Amino acid sequence: MAVRGKALMITIVGVVAVLAAMSVAWVFLCPSRSANLQKAHIQRRDYDQSVKDIQKVIADDAANGEVRPESRPILKTHGKKTARAVMILHGVSGEPSAMAELADWFYQTGYNVYVPRAPHHGLKDGKQHGKVRASELVKFMSDSAGLVSGLGDELGVIGHSGGGTLATWLAQYGDGLFSRVLLLSPYYEPDASQVPKWQVALLCNLYGRHLLPDQFFDGALSYRALANYVIVKQNYRSDLKAVGLKHVGLIIGNEDRLIDSAMARDIAEKMAKNSGATFTNETTPAHMGVGHELIWPGDKAVKQYKKELYDMYVRVYER
């Protein structure tokens, strides 16, 4: 009996060890790619229908007591379809109001502009953005692309931080709808100083799948949300090719230590090259001291150098 008991214990220990090894392998090796995250369903509209449907989205947000008034989507239109229109996407935990000044800058240049609100963002409970899933972001991008589709003859998309993640996805899966992309410190993965590279898979599989209780970087950025934006990045086309893309602009804050800047340059440049598009890569001037929040109106550096920065954004977008 003692021999049998010892053998049973060895077997149990072995099974536990195998299960533990399988669990560890799953955490680090389980892929985050899915066919459902690699296609857009865009309903194209004419100008009148775009404006009508966007106004309904804004009205729905106005009627939603959970949405902060300053977080409602923004529409700036010249009253007709213009030669150029652009959609501007805010970042993780952000809201449309952070993009309002940039939207006005492009509007004054002659663009029709739409700034949508990402799912679970801009709510009175600022931590609700942690509920967002990659599948919701894909639907949000498809719906938003359809809404902006009738606003201009030539369409572009601008994204800051996590909005850059989404803008890159839209360029590749937007079926040629967007011919220009401007990426402002795009967040594809955190800088290694923030999250060691070996932990990125853990971030995606445990936080991205909502298996661990949420945590918040600097008390504001949800780990779950950050992980789901990385999952969107993991579902880019393997060749990064974007049909119909003519130009890619990339601007990174000189003092940005939050994103993987090398990855940002690599993805943006490869997308441009493989799409036959031109590519412009610039960094904000060192003397400005601009970090990751190179678009946020409340940032001291952005306030001080607003005209120089915003002129730079338009120039890099249009080049």
Question: How would you describe this structure to a colleague?
Answer:
The longest helix has 28 residues, at 2-29. The chain is an alpha/beta fold and 319 residues long. The strands form two sheets. The protein has a seven-stranded mixed β-sheet, with helices on both faces. Residues 13-29 have low confidence and may be disordered. The chain has ten helices and nine strands. 42% of the residues lie in helices and 14% in strands. The chain has helices at residues 2-29, 47-63, 100-108, 134-148, 162-173, 200-207, 223-234, 261-275, 300-304, 306-318; strands spanning 74-76, 82-89, 112-115, 152-160, 180-184, 216-217, 221-222, 247-252, 278-283. The protein has two domains: 1-30; 34-318, Alpha/Beta hydrolase fold, catalytic domain (Rossmann fold, 3-Layer(aba) Sandwich), CATH 3.40.50.1820. α1 crosses α6 (200-207), α5 (162-173) runs parallel beside α7 and α6 crosses α7 (223-234). Keywords: Membrane, Transmembrane, Transmembrane helix. InterPro entries: AB_hydrolase_fold (IPR029058), Hydrolase_4 (IPR022742).
List keywords for this structure.
2 domains; 9 strands; globular; 42% helix; 319 residues; two-stranded antiparallel ribbon; alpha/beta; Rossmann fold
Overall domain count: 2
- The assigned CATH architecture of the largest domain is 3-Layer(aba) Sandwich
Read across the widest sheet, the strand sequence of neighbours is 1-3-2-4-5-8-9
* Terminus-to-terminus distance: 81 Å
> What does the average pLDDT come to?
91
Q: What is the total tally of β strands?
A: 9
